[in-house]
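Box S2. Input/output pair 1.
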Amino acid sequence: MTTLGIIGAGHIGSQVARAAIAAGYDVVMANSRGPETLAALVAELGEHARAATAADAAAAGDVVVVTVPFKSYASIPVEPLAGKIVIDTNNYYWERDGHVPALDERRHTVTGLLQEHLPTSRVAKGFNHIMAKDITTDGRPAGASDRRALATASDFADAAAFVTDLYDQFGFDTVNVGPLSESWRVERDQPAYVAPQTRDQLVANVARAQRQLAA
């Protein structure tokens, strides 16, 4: 059985955990406040979930989801994630995270910065442009006319393929927008951001994206 490490147990992390357990995964969850603060969530999730430190969740996961505020990405442990696929759910909110010139000036991407922080991991974008509550409610069977699509991006084909398969297990189609340098196309203030959309609609929204300087 595949174990999914989840670093960040907020709205997105908790919903990914619920969907993953329903799909047959074990999950090991961490937050910034300590494993003991996750007791209620782990009890709700059941026998296929346990709480750990961030380093332990990183070590335990065959694949690891990073879902912390962007301003905290540099705190993600590097060594336990060496050689692993890492799924990044992040978006940049300068009002919360503080201004980052490389992002404000469109010289980098959110997930590209995590990839630089984790040079021995294979990072892919995932779950960043869907409301948390929709992760466990909007899935549809493959082939359904109203099946929602989500995007991924990665510099590594196997990482993008893993996200594609995970989306499918959760009930979503996938649009691969390319390398991490293109991952901004599905982030905040873009047409694809948190919009329920089919695969064809997501492809069109990705094409319509325009990169703007931060306010």
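Box S3. Input/output pair 2.
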Amino acid sequence: MKPWSETLSLPKPLRHLRLKGEAGADTPLAAEEQLRASYERGRREAEQALSEQLLQQRAEVHELMRGVLDALRQAVPQVVRDTENTMIALSLSVAQKLVADTPISVVLVETVVRDALAQIEGTAQFTVRLHPADLDLLQKSDSPLLGGGEAQEFRFLSSPEVTRGGCLVQTQFGTVDARRETKFDLLQRTITA
């Protein structure tokens, strides 16, 4: 037999072509069955891979949600503490503004001095230091707190270190600080402690 040297051209592509001696080469139905079986096997493997991937993603989302919930559980008490501190600071600021805007009157100065003197009850000798304008206010109104005469063992003095509406009472045992800013600082320390 002579070797073939010409190229063959076919009008249509060949289908179901098998080499002689190949299993199932004679039956096109066997080839289709193999193709279907391969398709089904590939589909099952893809479904299994997708199912595993979905389970993994579900576990990751669950872990992420747990982390978010834990973060929220920790954040809420901190937000409450921050809000409390802000409300305290705001309240103190409002109180300080209200007190600072209170007009200084004879009644106010007398009340402050009486409250300070109540703390030194039983002490005969003391000095009350007032802001010069407050002392002038008490003198002009002939306040009964000022008493009368030089024989008394207490005296009222003007002092620029005392702010309006406050006083310092000095005794031989110590000083009672009844200035507004001192009272406010004490209030602030008490509330924030």
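Caption for Box S3: The mean pLDDT is 84. The chain is about 55% helix and 10% strand.
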